[in-house]
# Entry
Amino acid sequence: MPDDEVVATLTLIGTTGNHALHDKYELPFNGADRVGRYTQMAVLKPYRGLNLPLYLLLEARRLFVVGNFTHTWLLFRADRAIASRFCRMLDFSASSHIVQGEEGPCRVLLRAERTHRADLADLQTRRFLDKVRPKQLQVIPPSETGRANAVQRDLSLRSGRPCSGLVREDEWVAH
# Structure
């Protein structure tokens, strides 16, 4: 992989209390649930097939989800959602209904984060990824990249608060 080229990205947005968004996608959250949405997941075409979304989700969970969210969710193409690695490997459940997402017909993939099943799924997925990982793959948290530091500075200026620890939105990059 190129030394300084961003080849994949993922954003985690806190959606706790966003009842309009949760109602739009028929999500069953109550007032006590702390909810995060994975979005803006993208991998450059030459790097697809390297399981980069799995790496990014696991890293996001390790850094920000555990202890902060009870549930995470994302939209996934309706025709591929049930057979996706998110459902097969990471214990996400696909909704039975199809919703209109930003990219067309989707299913909601939902995961309860504070369960033994989620922890076990992560452990098994990490073991799988350790076996198939290309030697040159490195997942880098935003604090260790120049671009991410610029993003954090911009978010700090716009929000008026420092971006450290858990913030409303963070981005991970894989180099």
